[in-house]
Task: inverse folding
C-alpha cells in the first residue's frame, strides 16, 4: 500500500509553541509553590521546575528559529530544505552536493 504525500501546513508548529508555553507555566507554578511554602519537597520541585523551564525554553527557541528561517526564505522555495536545494542545483548545472555525498548515492560496481 503506497502512501500519498501530504502537503505540510505548519500547524504542528502551533502545538510545539503551546507545549513550550505550558512547560514554562508548569515551571512557574512549581517555583511559586516553593516560594509560598506550598510544597513538601522543595528540592524536587525546584529541580523539576528547572527541567520544565529548560525544555519549554528549548521548544520555544526552536520554533522561533524555524519561524525566522521561514520568513527569510519565504520567496525562495529552493532553500526550504537541503534535499530540494541540491536537486534544483543539479538541474541548473550547479555543484549539487559535496563529492563525498555524491559518491554515496552512486551505484557501486
Result:
Amino acid at each position: 500500500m503506497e502512501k500519498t504525500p501530504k502537503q505540510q501546513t505548519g500547524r504542528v508548529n502551533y502545538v510545539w509553541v503551546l507545549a513550550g508555553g505550558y512547560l514554562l507555566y508548569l515551571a512557574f507554578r512549581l517555583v511559586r509553590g516553593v516560594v509560598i511554602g506550598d510544597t513538601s519537597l522543595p528540592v524536587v520541585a525546584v529541580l523539576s521546575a528547572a527541567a520544565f523551564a529548560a525544555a519549554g525554553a528549548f521548544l520555544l527557541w526552536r520554533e522561533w528559529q524555524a519561524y525566522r528561517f521561514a520568513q527569510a526564505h519565504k520567496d525562495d522555495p529552493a532553500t526550504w530544505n537541503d534535499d530540494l536545494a541540491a536537486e534544483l542545483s543539479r538541474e541548473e548545472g550547479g555543484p549539487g552536493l559535496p563529492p563525498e555525498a555524491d559518491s554515496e548515492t552512486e551505484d557501486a560496481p
User: Anything to note?
Assistant: The radius of gyration is 22 Å. Residues 97 and 103 are 10 Å apart (CA to CA). The chain has a mean pLDDT of 79. Residues 13-97 form one domain.
